[in-house]
Amino acid sequence: MHATTADRSRPASRKYLISAAAWVVPGAGHLWLGRRQKGLTFLIALTLMFVTGLWLEGRLFPFELTQPLVLLAAFADLGIGLPYFVAKLLGHGGGRVVAITYEYGNAFAIVAGLLNMLVVLDAYDIAEGRK
Amino acid sequence: MTTHVGLMVLFSLFVSIVFATMMRDEPAAQLRLGARMFAGFVGAGILIGWLLYPLPL
Predict the structure, then answer these.
(1) Contact indicator for A22, A120 with CB cutoff of 8 Å
(2) Interface membership of A46 toward B (CB under 8 Å)
(3) ipTM for the complex?
(4) Can you tell me the distance from the alpha carbon of B57 to that of B40, in angstroms, rounded to the nearest whole number?
């Protein structure tokens, strides 16, 4: 799909708003831009991946400034947007280190967040008219 | 389901779906690329698993 004239003429503030929406709700940026199939696919796949990470007893890492790797993992977790805050609010994501699936859970939650960051960039590119 | 292979397959499925959806616009092309990526991820995972098998823990 190619960029339309309307895509190119979007004001900068709207592009950032679309990017913010894409971060808060996975796929929302694409839905906003009329890419319904892509948006719904991202919404379902990324949310499910993040929830699977929590189900596998993965941890939502804290923002620990003294431990750079933990800090990076915390930023990656945060990449999923709203589901992260909902999980925190409901008391999920404490992680159980002795669980056999703990590391798998971490991988699912972290990668779901990182993939959503890519989806945000993709939504921005579409809004910018590059795609 | 929570075996190493089962989780590797599930992980590959999620990643393939997201990348294929992002990189292609037409559903048929997404399906083709997603299937190829999924097969590649699972195949590479099994291959690397076997290559690591002789190594001591």
Answers:
(1) yes
(2) yes
(3) 0.89
(4) 26
Residue A59 backbone phi and psi in degrees, to 5: -110, 140
Amino acid letter at A118? L
Q: Tokens for A99?
A: 């669980």
CA R_g for chain B: 14
Candidate from B2, B17, B22 with C-beta closest to A118: B22
Q: How far apart are CA A88 and CA B17, in angstroms?
A: 26
- Lookup result for tokens 């960051």: A117
A66: exposed, middle or buried (C-beta count within 10 Å: 0-12, 13-18, 19+)? exposed
Q: From the list B11, B17, B27, which residue is nearest A108 (CB)? A: B11
What digits encode the pLDDT tens for the residues A31-88? 999 999 999 999 999 999 999 999 999 999 999 999 999 999 999 999 999 999 999 9
